[in-house]
Design a protein that fits this description.
By secondary structure, this protein is an alpha+beta fold. The protein has 2 helices and 5 strands; from the N terminus they run αββββαβ. It has one domain. The protein has a 3-stranded antiparallel beta sheet with strand order 2-1-5.
């Protein structure tokens, strides 16, 4: 089961990663159906999230969230 953490804690950690070149994707759990969702736009954190499986809009800032990130090396 996925875990959501306080919005500002997650945002601050994600921003540090993004500032080093990572692509950070916000994740949250839908309040309606419990689906785990990922926002497609990297390095942007939203306070509200719409589910693609039900009509629920989740207050991510209140509920909390998490993230995944992608970081690569430039080979020369």
């Amino acid at each position: 089961m996925a875990t959501d953490f306080p919005f500002m804690d997650v945002y601050n950690k994600a921003k540090k990663l993004a500032d080093t070149g990572a692509k950070v994707y916000q994740k949250f759990t839908c309040d309606g159906c419990g689906s785990r969702l990922t926002i497609e736009e990297p390095n942007v954190f939203h306070e509200l999230g719409t589910c693609d499986k039900c009509p629920t809009v989740t207050d991510i800032k209140k509920k909390g969230c998490n993230f995944m990130y992608i970081m690569g090396l430039n080979a020369k």
